[in-house]
């Protein structure tokens, strides 16, 4: 009894102290007028994202990823049932521009049986990366699903380790992000080394690009390609930002930057200032390393893409791949207006860029990579139909390794340890466990993609076209995606040679499924011919 009185007295005394402070302070009007209880408002504001995710919003309302979308990723990463009962809860009757995949009643294209049995399925790229330019180290990527650019610094060391180990398990690739190549990236997974405007990892003491350092770096790790970052969907036209609170001694060493101040990358490159000088630099890097070299960019004004296609037309210079990042993409820190308003969303931006290259007959020379909330099957399918050869995922990979969308990436207070450098929070990420979760997510997603290709009657996602999808406009109209985006027949597909080569690769690497066995009374030839692309 005495202890309870003491406890109650201390509580009253503590509340009295808070009330006195609130009444005397002048910073917060709400607390001055409503001492003690006014703190409830700030508490609710602080935990608002979490409350909305689990209590307030419906399954499809939360942004950037809805509860349904997150649940699918979580279930896939844990190998739990990711099916749904009782039909869709999407508002397909009234949502403008809702994409619908058209299934094919009869088809000669049958995907591997592993798409349904749980067996490992392979999904290589339809194009050889660097092949058209004759790069010494050109290769066919083993996976059309890869992990997008997220730097060590934005993400914790264990999170980077989990991602790199995870892509190794499934034969995918891991983009380093512009923050340099750290020890955490060296877990055996194939890498794409990204060069940003600050040249982290390949710069001298004055911050200038140094080719010799780049050559040494890419030779020290399993780097398969180099990506020059022009801009990204989260903050196009603005340099990357790493808050001072997240800069550890290790990060400072890897990047070659001081501690205690925000790390703000320049908004433009110092090595080139126009398309002509950029292509010269691309060829310098490609010749020196032998690696495929590409660019990553969000889409704004189209004059850059028009000029790039024009200068690549004679075949003497060119990028090996183009990664298009949609304005809906984004991890880490960015000013709100940039996240909300700058750069075109993926479907609009990608289709504009693809059209520039298709109209000039250059689409077959370039591997197109899509990025920006494409880690969901429905979005990826549209990207492949528009002409993407591969897709990169960032936030979806974060979700697979434990992110809960608390939206605290920019504060260094990520509660799951994925996007923070706080030692206590970082310890929550177990790279061994989380690498398996990422691998599970990619494997499950591949199987879902195969199921879609089977329904549409093609043997590979890259062979889906804008003729396989229609966009709904309420209950009264649906328009073919070819009309919506202004695509001509044949656009969005690899060349016939690449289709033939892909069919052979698929036959050699994947078990073949098929229709039910024929009865003695069956008429006609119902055998499967995966090399064919029905209707195209």
Automatic annotation (TrEMBL):
Transmembrane residue ranges: none
Gene3D superfamilies reported in the protein's UniProt record: Aldolase class I
Domain Glutamate synthase: 143-458
GO-annotated biological processes: glutamate biosynthetic process
Region Disordered: start-end pairs: 109-129, 510-536
Gene Ontology molecular function: glutamate synthase activity
Bias kind Basic and acidic residues: ranges: 520-536
Recorded family membership: Belongs to the glutamate synthase family.
Protein name: Glutamate synthase
């Amino acid at each position: 009894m005495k202890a309870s009185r003491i406890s109650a007295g201390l509580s009253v005394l503590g509340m009295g102290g808070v009330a006195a402070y609130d009444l005397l302070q002048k910073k917060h009007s709400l607390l001055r007028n409503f001492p003690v209880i006014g703190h409830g408002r700030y508490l609710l504001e602080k935990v608002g994202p979490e409350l909305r995710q689990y209590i307030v919003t419906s399954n499809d309302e939360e942004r950037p990823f809805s509860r349904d979308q997150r649940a699918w990723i979580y279930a896939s990463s844990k190998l739990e049932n990711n099916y749904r009962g009782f039909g869709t809860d999407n508002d397909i009757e009234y949502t403008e521009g809702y994409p619908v995949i058209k299934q094919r009643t009869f088809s000669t294209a049958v995907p591997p049986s592993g798409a349904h049995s749980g067996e490992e399925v392979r999904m290589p790229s339809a194009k050889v990366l660097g092949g058209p330019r004759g790069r010494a180290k050109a290769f066919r990527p083993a996976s059309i699903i890869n992990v997008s650019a997220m730097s060590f610094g934005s993400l914790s060391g264990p999170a980077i380790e989990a991602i790199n180990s995870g892509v190794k398990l499934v034969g995918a690739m891991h983009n380093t992000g512009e923050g340099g190549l750290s020890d955490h990236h060296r877990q055996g997974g194939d890498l794409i080394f990204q060069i940003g405007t600050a040249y982290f990892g390949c710069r001298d003491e004055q911050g200038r690009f140094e080719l010799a350092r780049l050559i040494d770096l890419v030779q020290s790790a399993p780097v398969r390609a180099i990506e020059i970052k022009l801009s990204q969907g989260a903050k196009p036209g603005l340099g990357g930002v790493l808050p001072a609170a997240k800069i550890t001694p290790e990060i400072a060493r890897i990047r070659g930057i001081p501690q205690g101040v925000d790390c703000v990358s320049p908004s433009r490159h110092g090595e080139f200032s126009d398309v002509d000088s950029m292509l010269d630099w691309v060829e310098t890097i490609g010749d020196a390393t032998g690696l495929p070299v590409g660019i990553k960019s969000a889409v704004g004004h189209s004059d850059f893409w028009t000029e790039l296609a024009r200068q690549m037309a004679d075949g003497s210079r060119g990028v090996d791949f183009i990664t298009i990042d949609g304005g809906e993409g984004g991890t880490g820190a960015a000013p709100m207006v940039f996240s909300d308003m700058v750069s075109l969303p993926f479907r609009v931006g990608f289709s504009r860029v693809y059209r520039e290259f298709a109209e000039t007959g250059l689409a077959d020379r370039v591997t197109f990579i899509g990025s920006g909330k494409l880690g969901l099957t429905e979005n990826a399918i549209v990207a492949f139909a528009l002409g993407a050869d591969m897709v990169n995922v960032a936030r979806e990979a974060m979700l697979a390794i434990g992110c809960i969308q608390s939206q605290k990436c920019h504060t260094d207070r990520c509660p799951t340890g994925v996007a923070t450098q706080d030692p206590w929070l970082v310890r929550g990420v177990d790279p061994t466990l989380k690498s398996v979760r990422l691998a599970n997510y990619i494997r499950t997603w591949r199987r879902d993609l195969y199921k879609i290709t089977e329904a549409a009657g093609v043997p590979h996602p890259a062979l889906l076209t804008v003729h396989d999808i229609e966009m709904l406009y309420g209950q009264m109209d649906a328009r073919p995606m070819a009309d919506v985006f202004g695509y001509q027949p044949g656009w969005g597909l690899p060349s016939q040679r690449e289709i033939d080569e892909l069919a052979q690769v698929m036959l050699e690497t994947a078990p073949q499924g098929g229709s039910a066995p024929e009865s003695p009374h069956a008429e006609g030839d119902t055998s499967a011919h995966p090399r064919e692309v029905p209707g195209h």
